[in-house]
Known about the structure:
Elements: H1 27-52, H2 54-69, H3 73-92, H4 94-97, H5 102-113, H6 139-152
Helix pairs in contact: 2-3, 2-6, 3-6
Amino acid sequence: MNAPVDPLAGLRDLHLPAPISWWPPAPGWWGLAILGLALGFGACWWWRSARRCRYKKIALQALARLTASQDEARLLVPEIASLLRRVAIESYGRPAVARLTGAAWLEFLDRTGKTSQFSQGPGQVLGTALYQPDLAVDPAQVCEVVKTWIKGHRPC
Length: 156
């Protein structure tokens, strides 16, 4: 009699595939990496932009405090002029701004603010009229002109 034949004896062993390598990553990981880089660059750009424009927010808050604490033009206008000069120096640099006085200062404000409110409007008081003993000007109008200049003189 024949010996029983094992039917599994003729089969070969299983050949396992090579282990999955870590490089190149799957397409999903590429997408996640690109998304992470885009978010990182976007966050850096937003942070730098917010820092670059922070002085405007601080200046507007200071202007609001000045107008709330003082109504008399004789006392308020010199403070506003000082604030405006500090903002201009912060934005355009000391060499470009510090030497400007009188009509040149008002022309600079008109040019950078794209307006004529400083040389021909209520902002004239910030030129030479600032040093007059009697200021015939409405401080609210001056504040509005200065607020408009601070908001729009230079895009962030």
